[in-house]
Amino acid sequence: MGGLRPWARYRLLTAAHLLALGLGAAVLQALEGPPARRLQAQLRAELAAFQAEYGACLPSGALEELLGTALAAQAHGISSLGNVSEAGNWDLPSALLFTASLLTTTGYGHMAPLSAGGKAFCVVYAALGLPASLALMATLRHCLLPLLGCPVAWVAVRWQLAPARAALLQALGLGLLVAGTFVLLPALLLWGLQGNYSLLGAIYFCFGSLSTIGLGDLLPGRDRDLNPVLYHLGQIALLGYLLLGLLAVLLAAEMFAELPQARALVKLFGASGPLAAEDQGGILGQDELALSTLPPSAAAPDQAPPADR
């Protein structure tokens, strides 16, 4: 692919992306279509049986109207099925979890504002809060990445590893640590504590949360009769898990993105031309990169100009 022009590489990359979208849609259609149709048929059969047994006691269309009202309320996270853990839908723990899912773009979908003022506030709050959250994450990443590199640097010096191999070892180690600490271990705990979760469902929830997909079809404690105190403690624990887990995923993704192999792949689809100094010499430190961009006169301000002869 090195001989292709940049526009040809972009077209190839776009075609591959569209092909992946189509393939994913076809696989999901084949896997999820039959269960959805079976569930729809079961729902229609139960509705017909209910109407046949109790239809004489209900006015025409009353059941459909009641179900429509209940489903519209459920879409905003409000349920009247007797689950006491959801009695206070907008209490402080629930509101904190909602704002965290808003600022992290997770969007579980378990709650949604009803009022026009709430919707307007969410727009303004997200518009101001998302850049602030990104700035905070960037600051924490800048502070934590050098600390995380210390053990690998010690191993690289002790075992005399090449810089590229040491960087790969560091990325793989952090990736495995994040996967075990923030995906596998929470999934095992969720599987053991939540009776209606399978292990695959628990892993699916953890991955969906940390990848900010947040489909909202699974939420711990949502459909169980829990004590309100336990339910709120679970929401606070989920809030902490979401914030710490996203930071860990960001650090791991940053390390993988800075690998020479990843940079070479990105360079493959970039503009053709001579390699920059940082691409030839590896990953530069921030201070070194800043100094390399300064003009010679600014890089050495204390150097006196040569005297005229």
From TrEMBL:
<keyword id="KW-0407">Ion channel</keyword>
<feature type="domain" description="Potassium channel">
    <location>
        <begin position="87"/>
        <end position="142"/>
    </location>
</feature>
<dbReference type="InterPro" id="IPR013099">
    <property type="entry name" value="K_chnl_dom"/>
</dbReference>
<keyword id="KW-0406">Ion transport</keyword>
<keyword id="KW-0472">Membrane</keyword>
<dbReference type="InterPro" id="IPR005408">
    <property type="entry name" value="2pore_dom_K_chnl_TWIK"/>
</dbReference>
<comment type="similarity">
    <text>Belongs to the two pore domain potassium channel (TC 1.A.1.8) family.</text>
</comment>
<keyword id="KW-1133">Transmembrane helix</keyword>
<dbReference type="Pfam" id="PF07885">
    <property type="entry name" value="Ion_trans_2"/>
</dbReference>
<dbReference type="InterPro" id="IPR003280">
    <property type="entry name" value="2pore_dom_K_chnl"/>
</dbReference>
<feature type="transmembrane region" description="Helical">
    <location>
        <begin position="167"/>
        <end position="190"/>
    </location>
</feature>
<keyword id="KW-0630">Potassium</keyword>
<feature type="transmembrane region" description="Helical">
    <location>
        <begin position="197"/>
        <end position="216"/>
    </location>
</feature>
<feature type="transmembrane region" description="Helical">
    <location>
        <begin position="116"/>
        <end position="136"/>
    </location>
</feature>
<keyword id="KW-0813">Transport</keyword>
<feature type="transmembrane region" description="Helical">
    <location>
        <begin position="236"/>
        <end position="257"/>
    </location>
</feature>
<feature type="domain" description="Potassium channel">
    <location>
        <begin position="183"/>
        <end position="259"/>
    </location>
</feature>
<protein>
    <recommendedName>
        <fullName>Potassium channel domain-containing protein</fullName>
    </recommendedName>
</protein>
<keyword id="KW-0812">Transmembrane</keyword>
